[in-house]
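One-letter codes give the sequence; backbone shape is given numerically. An example follows:

. . .
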Amino acid sequence: MGVEAGAQAARSRALAVLRIRSRALAVALLPAAFAVVLYAGGITGHLVGPGWHAARWTVTPLAVLVLTAAAVVALVVARARPAVSPTVSIAEESAPDLYRMVRDLADRLDVPAPSAIALTPDCDSWLEDRTHPAHGPPPKEERDELTGARGANRRATAAPVLVIGSPFLWWMRVGELRAVLAPVVAGTGPSAHPDIAAARRFVRGLDAAVAVSSTSGRCPLTRVVCAGVGWVARLLLRSCREHAALMERGVAAAAAERAQAVDYGLRIVAQEQVGLAYAGWDRLLTRVALPAWRMGRWPSRLDAGVVAALTELSRRDRLAEGFASRLGERPACDLLEEPGAIDEATSLLAARLFHGGPAERGPDWAPVDWQEYPEEVVDRKWRLDAARLHRVLDAQGIHHTPPPTALEPAGPTLSRVLDYLATPGLQQPAPAPDPDPGTAEGEADADADSEAEFDNERTATLAAALTTALAREEATAPKAKAPDTPPPWDDTTLPLFPLQPPRTARELLTDHVTAMVCCAAMDTAGATPGLDWLDGPTLLIDGERTPDLAPGVLSLIEEGDPTPLRHWLTQAGIRPEKPLRLV
């Protein structure tokens, strides 16, 4: 470990954590020590008599009980599997240039090189210790040369794994990625110090023991034992929490200080790209990937998509001068041998983490390329939403009679929706009672929320019915099959990072009416679905994006005024009275 001030502070805090561990061990051994003294005194003839004999019989069971409890706690802390971040492992054979760049960076920083590299579908990078036996087999023999480990001691001294955010690899240039990773790789230096490594193992073990004690579905005796283990682990965690936090802060400060001499100027420029990548990644997930995930499709090239989104954002908002020259430099994804396969793996992992999809592709969970996205996702989503809207209207007993002069056959039309939402105040038939009593309370809450959101009674009724219908569909959807090989993270809590809270009744109704308008545009005016990388699905007429129809839709559902939307339909050449092709 270097002489950085942060490193020295981290070591002092690590020693404080280890002192807490030693004190806990001393407390556990104290009754046994008293018992040994009492027995030694009796054998030597110094502590004799009925009183001392009773003390020996009292202290001995207590010592055995405390030692047994301490052994159980120590065993759980040692054997419990620490949490592992969900990542896609990158073998050295699939990214030799990336490993070479990281090794050169570690040599320049004079720190141990990471033992392996993994990708995460997020805009962040960090070091992660995976030396616990439950984390899988130890690193390969050739990686032992990086850490100086040999034989049985290899796992205990292995360097941490370098986790890189996959959007960085596709958006950043090679020099920018190197500059961003410099302070991260520099953290392997303090991590290799024995005191810091031991303190981290102790804290991670306590955290894992708390997680084990919180697991449900155990027998009564096991629950009692787990409750005791959890209480002790939480007590020790509270005791060393501040020291552990300051230790990590010192490690980060030492790493940042050591990395200052490496590509400092370029790192300032690269940090701007970090913020840009985060903004583009968030937009891509929430506006483009999420609609596909909800339909059982997952975009298989999310990282390539974030490049397209950020390129469009940079050109549209003119975020940086010399943008074209920057794109001419070598992208960091060229450091991978098969970037397409890695992109697909991280895209599937992103779907699991942010949406909770299955672990493998299947008939109801198929990948989709960006070229197929408009037809396979956008068009299908609009028609499914429009069909759901008409099913809800049918269930409520709301009918639309076409005018006598109409030449079109009967069928679902946009006029039916417009006429219903635009007609003020007539009392409509109450919805049919739900045969499932378990949803009655949820429906009542949805009705109350919708009434609070809308002044129009018809709009509130329709929004509540849509919310209930969608909830039923999601409840009856097939559940994701558990993978044959359990992952190293807790797969039962997926999605780990849900993108957004449940949609409100207003948002659902707006989406369904908008989908109805888009279906009418496609079936009557020759419009086609498209993809805007920043705004998601978009409607194209003659290859051009149509004006925003959101103001007209909001005016209809909030005020019951169809005039702005009808004006928009007239300008676009859309015939709302024509029957539509729905699924």
